[in-house]
């Protein structure tokens, strides 16, 4: 797969002395009105553990309100009964430059979510809309840096879906292999702090294969590295606008690192949503236009 010439000329190494500049973002979310843990499709999910849907709704509203306070646009998809994980909207589409690549879920329990999101985009005039033929769990395994689409596989998204994404979205794709079942999606182990010609990321090194780790080290030598404690609270499931970084409340090690680099952490309680293996990013699809 092709790589921008910037990578062959040098490596992306951000000037840490330059100011952090937030950019307005466009997010798509779905309220957890029907949220519960009825089945187990990742190591976080335990159907025997009680779930407080009202608390999940309150935490979701706090997350949405935080985005709106920061000046971002938030649109909402109507939740559907019988789809308790629909709150994790990041898994349902990847949108870059107005092109939409839908999702195809590995677990039968989530399969119907893809069509609801496809209809939402279609009703709003998105004409370049493609549904994948390969298993593809969207922004769960795809992270857009503004230059590259980082693409995870190992537990959910098929490796072949990476080439399909490149064709559908017309952007270069870098494949990364996940090795720890707790970090079953790329967005549980990596997120983009800043997009653009000098992108910056944060990630948890132990979640990746040896080869993929070398790729990340080569592409992003100045990346923020999360600790085991950060990863265990899904701290790498963050959302950044280039300055403000929304994180789970417990991700204090990561928040401290980010503050030293000039970012402003926004710590929120997402503990109820974490019972299904989700955090801020899982609840947040970004529409890159």
TrEMBL record:
<protein>
    <submittedName>
        <fullName>N-dimethylarginine dimethylaminohydrolase</fullName>
    </submittedName>
</protein>
<dbReference type="GO" id="GO:0016787">
    <property type="term" value="F:hydrolase activity"/>
</dbReference>
<keyword id="KW-0378">Hydrolase</keyword>
């Amino acid at each position: 797969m092709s790589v921008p010439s910037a990578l062959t000329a040098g490596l992306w190494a951000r000037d840490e002395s330059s100011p952090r500049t937030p950019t307005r973002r466009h997010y798509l979310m779905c309220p957890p009105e029907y949220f519960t843990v009825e089945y187990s499709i990742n190591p976080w999910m335990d159907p025997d553990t009680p779930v407080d849907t009202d608390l999940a709704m309150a935490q979701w509203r706090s997350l949405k309100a935080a985005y709106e306070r920061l000046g971002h646009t938030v649109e909402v998809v109507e939740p559907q009964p019988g789809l308790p994980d629909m709150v994790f909207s990041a898994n349902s589409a990847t949108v870059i430059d107005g092109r939409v690549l839908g999702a195809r879920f590995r677990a039968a329990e989530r399969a119907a979510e893809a069509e609801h999101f496809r209809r939402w985009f279609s009703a709003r005039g998105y004409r370049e809309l493609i549904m994948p033929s390969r298993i593809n769990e969207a922004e769960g395994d795809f992270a857009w840096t503004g230059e590259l689409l980082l693409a995870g596989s190992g537990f959910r998204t098929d490796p072949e879906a990476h080439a399909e994404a490149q064709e559908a979205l017309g952007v270069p794709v870098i494949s990364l292999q996940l090795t720890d079942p707790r970090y079953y999606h790329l967005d549980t182990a990596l997120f983009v702090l800043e997009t653009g010609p000098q992108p910056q990321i944060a990630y948890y090194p132990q979640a990746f294969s040896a080869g993929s780790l070398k790729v990340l080290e080569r592409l992003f030598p100045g990346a923020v590295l999360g600790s085991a404690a950060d990863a265990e609270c899904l701290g790498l499931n963050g959302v950044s606008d280039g300055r403000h970084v929304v994180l789970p409340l417990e991700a204090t090690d990561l928040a401290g690192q980010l503050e030293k680099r000039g970012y402003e952490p926004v710590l929120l309680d997402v503990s109820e949503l974490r019972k299904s293996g989700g955090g801020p990013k899982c609840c947040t699809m970004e529409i890159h236009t």
